[in-house]
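Final report, section 2: Outcomes. Of the targets proposed, Esterase is the one most frequently requested by collaborating groups, and we therefore present its record in full.
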Amino acid sequence: MSAKETFRWYSPRIEREVQLVRWGNYGTPVLLFPTAGGDAEEIERFHLIRALQPLLDAGRIKVYSTDSVAGRAWISGNESAEYCSRLQNLFDAFIYQEVTPAIRKDCATENIEIVAAGASIGAFNAVATVCRHPDAYKLAIAMSGTYDLSKYLEGRFNQDFYFSSPLHYLPDLENEQLETLRSRLILLPTGEGNYEDIGESWRMARVLGAKGIPNRVDPWGSTYHHDWVTWREMLPKYLAEFA
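The predicted structure is given below as tokens.
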């Protein structure tokens, strides 16, 4: 049985106590973002860790997860668009400057490349993390993604949001980051059943493709809905193939 460990610290960037939970002993590190309202252990409660157990036990992957700090703010309806946008940008800094070094330290490899994965808003975070930090993240497995968060802005578009949203900043991107990103891969699997919108994935794919960033939309069909049953089937398949 693979090990589980929880790391806790105070993040000065998002100004709160945070946690990073790890399952597994060896293998490719996978940062698995929760859904919008989820915490670091959501993926265990909804049996996604159980679905990944064969890969964990075989030492092929180590899975990490942290709380959905910005996602909770977006869906709460209690915060301003400016606050949510700023928190999303700070959450990205937290992931890159705190979580990423913690994963690399735990793997005892200072430059190990990480896979980012998630479903729904977790898919947004996975794509955003790879796109902003292709120096550290090599692959996104973005399931049933929601990629345009501008619906939460109420028309108040701002700089924090722009730099947090791949749909919006990628068309203008022309630098070394883009060159590195062109050596990465963004996978966009999605169902076409209840509460799924494959159009979100195709829109993201068009923006990525226009910049020469490798990507693939995988339609799973109308019997796959926007829920954990779908993601428990998807994620082991892709990690077995790419991890």
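The domain at 4-242 is CATH 3.40.50.1820 (Rossmann fold).
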